[in-house]
User: Which sequence fits this backbone?
């Protein structure tokens, strides 16, 4: 429970650090903008990330990996899978949480009898990363699907007209 | 210590490596240029006694370059054709009588265009267009960088204008009452001697802001060129030397006015026994004036000519002519029918030739 | 920092994108982000310079030997012909107000997608070769050499701009990146760098009259097909005149309307409307395209394609022209057509034959937007409407960039929508009207191969749609642009599943009560009127 207390006490600072570390995966010029602008419409990337990592962090602390996690991962990875990131970097933002916590709480964790808990927490992060990888793959597959479907839609009218020319076939 | 440093670092998006990066190099170039130029005046005046050179030749030359360069640039723009009618429309067009048209953002009369330009030029309205946001506490709005930019730009440009007008008192005899009134209003809040002008303070703060934002906002730093820093530093140098002359190292204003009037009469006389700051002030102004036509400062006349802003949104009502229009090769109906005549006939589409 | 574990340290290096000055050109062509170059046969058909086969991923782009001279000469030529070009290259103060206004920058986070920097890619060359300060101060004044790398960078970033003009609204001087992009693309075209998704439609349009390359007999069969479908849905057999001389009005719409989905239903809407009011009009097969992909290539090609409209109006002897729902088509018609190919003195000032309303604002061009036309019909109570037939839809409206910032057509479509549907919700104020976000695929970038670029560019738009989807349950995004109708469905399928896309006149067609119609059980899509929407049914299923 020691770790849990530490985490909840430092939640705001950890989230901020995590968020900053994630933004560092973007060019510095972009990152500062995403940081400053809180508007969900003019800065959808920054605001989505900051909103969703808060949910993810809460779930990690509670030790739950559920639907809500899935949808948060989905929101973030939908964005990261169409930006110019290789898969490792698109998904790797999860591991940045380890670093954020390490930076903030290393001494406390080492001092307090929290090593066990910390190891457990780390493996939860690992699990989340695996889940994130699945989500990432779903997003990429979705993109492929959409491309294929686009190609089909382009021919759709032609197919429909061909159907019409074959009188035996029931239309609509 | 470690943590606070990290925090600061990340907060401003700084990276240690950036400090050696090109953009900051641009800044150092500009700073060195300004220092070098200051040094030049000091050497020139104190060491070599080139008073006439700095107070007569350089100002005249700068003014000459300004007038010629300014006219050249403006005429070049003004004589470039506007082939197409391309206003950036930002309001409801005038179409059906019962739909209220927006004569400012989608002007359909010359009056509308004048209003639109006036709002843009006098109030910098596009900078204010930034995001009215419904999901935010209103007090945050002022601190949005975009609104801050509007505020800084307004403060800078307007105080610059007032200061410029105040300076007319050196060039006009008798000093017009409007200038005197302006001067009074500008110093109204204080009975200090020497008088501190409000605009002096505002312009220093505004310049400071405009300068600092080029350094601390990474995306602005990314796009900033050496020349962007240079212009700001040059103006800062002018303002600082001016303020110092007023407050600490007093200058003999009678001498200055005599010099100014003589310059105007084209019978120039070099001022005697004035503070070195005056020479720096004057030299920097000359530089700014000479540099003006070469630089982005030409946005001042440019905005009046901007075809996305100074045209009415009436392109379907009135034909816009392209002066360099030329005939182009097209695919005519005859060529088209030639290719498809048989199949057109087959499905019963009307055709021109048998 | 030295005491950090080495693993984390390596992470940091790994995750940080190295930062260089933008002055050093760099481009990476990653699959999924760039458009394929134009097939040389299209370039040859249109008689464009330097046709050849090449790929952006190639080291050698096979530029013509004198490419540098060609580009510099092209620049000089355009500097003398366009005030916008010279002025916009000169007066930018790099204040950064535009930086976060571009949907591509917001969605991709690539700093070279900031409008100011996109322009600076070109401006730096202008300074080097055409300005005194650039020649004297070089890099300090932001000037750089024109190298092949620069050309590659242009190709990358000027085909990542959709010419949507959003930045121009926020620029204190009205600098319009669209103008800059148009010029840059013209320069690229001079050395034979084109993309296929622009040139193939343009070549098709030149030959067959429309982008999709539909020959006249196929056009006739799609129309017949539509007539059949409409008869099944409404019980009414509509007349659709084609190439008919002596009609009062020539109607021109984007070709996607009669050959793509979901455009098709908008097409059905037009046909029902014209039938119901008994409009004396005709379609044309020769001018069977309102859209103009030439605009995305060069002013000259735009003019060559646009010429068909007036020449066909003249040949058919109509009085005026009515135009369908399309974005860039209307940019051309509103701001360019009269200049390109006018004066249209053989036509008459447009007057609605039904209401008698004189469309004075189109006095010279003689072409009226269908939303203006229909809104006028509705205002004068000439249509019987049953909005409950659109009851399954909770509707929002996307202003397409060109009808918004190119025309100011804001209230007409909204007025129509409020008349034909029961629930209408606006997206947030800073994402509509003149501040509307682009679909991310305009100006010829709606290809399949650059899907990732499209998806991230369209994210700001989709994000605003998601907001009304979650808040009000909006399930239909309406628009008056054929490119939108083609590109928003995949965009929403990715970001906001459960929201469909439709043209405004599709909803008009649904709501319009025809004389002599049978009771309608389905909408124009063939879906039952009452069905609650199933999450994102694919169009393929709909067709079955």
Assistant:
């Amino acid at each position: 429970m020691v770790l849990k207390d530490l985490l909840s006490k430092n939640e705001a600072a950890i989230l901020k650090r995590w968020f900053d570390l994630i933004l560092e995966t973007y060019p510095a010029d972009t990152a500062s903008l995403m940081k400053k602008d809180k508007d969900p419409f003019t800065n959808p990337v920054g605001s989505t990330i900051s909103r969703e990592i808060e949910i993810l962090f809460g779930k990690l602390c509670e030790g739950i990996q559920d639907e809500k996690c899935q949808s948060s991962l989905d929101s973030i990875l939908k964005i990261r899978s169409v930006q110019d990131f290789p898969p490792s970097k698109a998904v790797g933002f999860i591991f940045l949480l380890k670093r954020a916590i390490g930076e903030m709480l290393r001494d406390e964790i080492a001092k307090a009898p929290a090593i066990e808990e910390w190891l457990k927490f780390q493996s939860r992060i690992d699990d989340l990363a695996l889940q994130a990888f699945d989500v990432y793959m779903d997003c990429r597959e979705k993109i492929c699907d959409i491309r294929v479907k686009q190609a089909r839609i382009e021919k759709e009218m032609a197919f429909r007209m061909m159907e019409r020319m074959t009188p035996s076939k029931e239309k609509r | 210590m470690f943590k606070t440093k990290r925090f600061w670092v990340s907060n401003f998006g700084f990276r240690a490596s950036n400090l050696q990066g090109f953009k900051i190099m641009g800044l150092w170039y500009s700073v060195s240029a300004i220092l070098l130029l200051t040094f030049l005046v000091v050497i020139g005046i104190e060491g070599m006694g080139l008073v006439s050179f700095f107070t007569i030749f350089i100002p005249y030359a700068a003014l000459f370059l300004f007038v010629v360069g300014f006219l050249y640039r403006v005429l070049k723009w003004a004589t470039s054709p506007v082939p197409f009618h391309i206003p950036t429309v930002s309001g409801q067009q005038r179409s059906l009588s019962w739909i209220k048209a927006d004569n400012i953002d989608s002007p359909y009369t010359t009056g509308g265009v004048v209003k639109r330009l006036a709002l843009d030029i006098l109030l910098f309205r596009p900078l204010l267009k930034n995001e009215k946001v419904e999901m935010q506490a209103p007090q945050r709005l002022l601190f949005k960088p975009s609104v801050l930019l509007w505020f800084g730009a307004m403060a800078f440009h307007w105080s610059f204008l007032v200061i410029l007008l105040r300076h007319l008192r050196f060039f006009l005899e008798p000093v017009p009452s409007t200038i005197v009134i302006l001067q009074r209003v500008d110093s109204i809040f204080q009975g200090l001697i020497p008088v501190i002008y409000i605009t002096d303070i505002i312009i220093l703060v505004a310049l400071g802001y405009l300068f600092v934002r080029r350094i601390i906002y990474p995306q602005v730093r990314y796009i900033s060129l050496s020349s962007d820093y240079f212009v700001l530093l040059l103006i800062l140098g002018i303002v600082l030397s001016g303020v110092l002359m007023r407050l600490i190292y007093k200058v003999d204003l009678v001498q200055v006015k005599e010099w100014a009037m003589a310059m105007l009469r084209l019978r120039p006389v070099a001022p005697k026994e004035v503070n070195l700051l005056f020479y720096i002030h004057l030299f920097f102004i000359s530089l700014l004036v000479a540099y003006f036509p070469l630089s982005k400062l030409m946005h001042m006349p440019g905005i009046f000519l901007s075809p996305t802003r100074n045209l009415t949104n009436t392109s379907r009502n009135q034909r816009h002519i392209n002066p360099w229009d030329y005939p182009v090769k097209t695919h005519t109906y005859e060529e088209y029918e030639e290719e498809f005549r048989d199949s057109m006939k087959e499905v019963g589409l009307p055709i021109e030739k048998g | 920092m030295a005491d950090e574990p080495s693993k984390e340290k390596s992470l940091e290096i790994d995750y940080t994108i190295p930062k260089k000055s933008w002055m050093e050109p760099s481009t990476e062509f990653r699959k999924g982000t760039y458009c394929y170059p134009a097939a040389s046969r299209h370039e040859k058909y249109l008689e464009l310079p330097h046709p050849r086969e090449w790929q952006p991923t190639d080291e050698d782009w096979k530029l013509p030997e004198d490419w540098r001279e060609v580009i510099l000469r092209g620049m000089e030529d355009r500097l003398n012909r366009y005030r916008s070009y010279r002025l916009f290259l000169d007066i930018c103060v790099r204040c950064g107000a535009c930086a976060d206004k571009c949907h591509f920058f917001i969605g991709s986070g690539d700093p070279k997608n900031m409008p100011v920097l996109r322009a600076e890619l070109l401006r730096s060359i202008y300074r080097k070769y055409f300005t005194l300060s650039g020649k004297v101060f070089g890099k300090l004044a932001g000037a750089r050499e024109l190298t092949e790398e620069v050309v590659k960078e242009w190709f990358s970033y000027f085909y990542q701009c959709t010419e949507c003009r959003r930045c121009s609204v926020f620029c204190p001087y009205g600098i319009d990146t669209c103008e800059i992009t148009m010029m840059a693309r013209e320069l690229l075209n001079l050395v034979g760098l084109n993309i296929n998704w622009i040139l193939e439609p343009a070549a098709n349009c030149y030959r067959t009259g429309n982008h999709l390359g539909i020959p006249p007999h196929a056009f006739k069969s799609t129309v017949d097909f539509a007539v059949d479908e409409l008869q099944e849905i409404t019980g009414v057999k509509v007349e659709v005149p084609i190439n008919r001389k002596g009609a009062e009005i020539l109607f021109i719409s984007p070709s996607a309307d009669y050959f793509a989905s979901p455009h098709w239903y908008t097409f059905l809407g037009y046909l029902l409307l014209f039938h119901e009011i008994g409009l004396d009009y005709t379609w044309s097969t020769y001018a069977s395209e309102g859209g103009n992909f030439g605009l995305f290539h060069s002013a000259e090609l735009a003019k060559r394609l646009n010429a068909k409209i007036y020449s066909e109006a003249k040949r058919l002897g109509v009085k005026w022209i009515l135009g369908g729902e399309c974005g860039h088509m209307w940019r051309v018609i509103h701001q360019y057509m009269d200049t390109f190919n006018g004066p249209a003195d053989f036509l008459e000032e447009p007057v609605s034959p039904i209401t008698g309303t004189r469309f004075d604002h189109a006095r010279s061009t003689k072409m009226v937007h269908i939303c203006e036309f229909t809104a006028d019909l509705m205002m004068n109570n000439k249509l019987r409407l049953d909005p409950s037939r659109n009851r399954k839809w909770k509707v929002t409206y996307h202003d397409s960039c060109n009808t918004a910032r190119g025309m100011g057509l804001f209230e007409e479509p909204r007025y129509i929508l409020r008349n034909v549907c029961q629930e209408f919700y606006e997206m947030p104020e800073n994402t509509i009207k003149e501040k509307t976000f682009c679909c991310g695929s305009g100006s010829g970038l709606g290809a399949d191969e650059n899907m990732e670029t499209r998806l991230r560019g369209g994210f700001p738009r989709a994000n605003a749609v998601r907001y009304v989807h979650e808040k009000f349950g909006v399930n239909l995004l309406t628009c008056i642009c054929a490119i939108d109708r083609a590109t928003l469905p995949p965009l929403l399928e990715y970001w906001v599943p459960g929201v469909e896309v439709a043209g405004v006149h599709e909803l008009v067609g649904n709501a319009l009560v025809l004389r002599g119609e049978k009771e309608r059980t389905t909408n124009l899509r063939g879906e039952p009127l009452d069905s609650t929407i199933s999450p994102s049914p694919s169009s393929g299923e709909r067709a079955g």
About this structure: Chain C touches chain A through 57 residues (CB under 8 Å).
